[in-house]
Amino acid sequence: EAEEEAAEAAARRDRIAAAQAYRAQLARMMAVEAEDEAERDAQIQAVADAQQAKRDAELAAREEARRKLMAEVDAIRQEQILEKQMRREAELQESLRPNADQIAMEERYQREQAEKARLAKKKAPEQRL
Fold it and tell me: What is the pLDDT of residues 33-53, one digit of tens each?
């Protein structure tokens, strides 16, 4: 009976040792798997970060292009407004400046008035007589 108990105790120790070895092996496998998973997650995150950085760069480039275009459009519009104001001012100045025909008519009128006045003075002494 002592031999039997010794054999059972030895078998129990062997089972306990086998179970502990199995648990240790599972723990090592789980640690390796966790490491591999962490590495995969890091790679996936790196790819996602690179894609997000690319999208951000493209968005920033579009925004910068849009800003430049709007600045260019605004500059062109301001130039057009200034040109229109200058054109209106020139047209106003032109309309206020007498043209050659008006000047010639005014000079002829002044000469005619001067001639009438001269003739009137010349006739005035004759009428007194």
Answer: 999 999 999 999 999 999 999
